[in-house]
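User: Show me a protein chain along with its predicted structure.
Assistant: Here is one chain, sequence first, then structure tokens.
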Amino acid sequence: SYTFNNVTANHTIAASFAINTFTITASAGANGTIAPLGVTNVNYDGSQAYTITADANHHIADVLVDGVSVGAVASYTFNNVTANHTIAASFAINTFEITASAGANGTIAPLGVTTVDYNGSQTYTITPNTGYHIDDVLVDGISVGTGASYTFNTVVAAHTISVTFVINTYTISGNTGTGEVLLAYELAGPMTVTSGVDGAYAVTVPFGWTGRIIPLKEGFRFSPDTLLVTDVVANLTEQNFGATPFVTTNLKVYLAGAFSGGGMTTVLNESGIIPLSSDNAYATSVYGYTAKLVPSIPAPAVVDWVLVELRSGTDSASHKGLQPAFLMNDGTVVDTNGTSTLTFMGVAHGSYYVIVRHRNHLPLMSAEAVPLNGSSARYDFTTDQSKAYGTTPMFLLSAGVYGMKAGDVTRDGIVRFTGTGSDRGAILLVVGFSDPTIPVAGYLDADSNLDGIAKFTGPQSDRGVVLQMVGFADPTIPVGSQVPH
């Protein structure tokens, strides 16, 4: 308002008017612009638009209007302006996510999602657990090898990195002592490998493996028979086995003196007079073999001790082995446990002449070389004369059944009924000249029929066995062994 006082002259008064204006102050942080920038006057109830632009490889981080965020907007308009305002834009460099993951048995660092600035770099360190190694590293799904670290350089996009691990494996190697040996072991289940023809082998096992490696080949025994390995953490070499070949004999033979009614008597066994050491039946000093001692006679069916010899040829110069064994009442020749086939260690697989000896019977030799291995087929002497070497080498026991000739009381390879050195005389010497009708009990060579007594006269006499073997037609003709010396 305006008042004229004490007016004494003419006056004029003129009033002019202008619209109210307000200021809007715009500011922008680094790496971007806002337009218009600075202070802009805006009339009352007017409007003002702002454009916000980030620099290359940056983005709007936030826009504050009067200190309050309105978001990361690219433009903002003040409408119906009735007061002063401020607008401030901030910017940030673009970022990208790298997602890192690791399979079991190892780590990657940093793990998970890592944010990396545009054009920046990020290094990852990959560490397997003890006993494991890096199997593969995939960057964006593509293998980059098995390195222990990886760096993303000049990052301009999102990426992934993933790593897998696998357990270390080690080789157990050596020689099996002979070729083509099956080696059995356990991993997740039963596994086998076969050694080469030179015996070389290699078994691959995982870190920390504990187990047994067992060599197997028919006809061989190994030392050690089992290789025990514990907590493998490195390759193992020179894990060698010794291999010893062996053959078995699967024989059937009858003793004529003991044979009766389809089998052989076990009276010696029942009487408890079979010696526990084979040396008492066949002196090692005479026969040149390694005696066997048993804690007891292993089975009721045992008839007596026998000796089994192998030859590569027909004569004794080709001798390959001699073993004591038990003869069972069904004619089977078994090892000293009473059940197993007889085994000859250190004898290579091949064909051999097989000789069976009994202390008061004439020995037999197979008519031909018999193929022997670790599980030899049955060789049955009892079925035909042709199964034994020589001319009429066996005694006919019954129709189609043959056995070793009895009565060689003197063990000289000849059964004699008369003359010097006769077996009849040897029996008489045992029972005594004073009264030959009285038998003598015991484990005696003079006991030709293995009934536990040496008997010179009467029914079932041992003298009668000798006579039966040489023949009633002309008892003066002796019967000799057909086995070559």
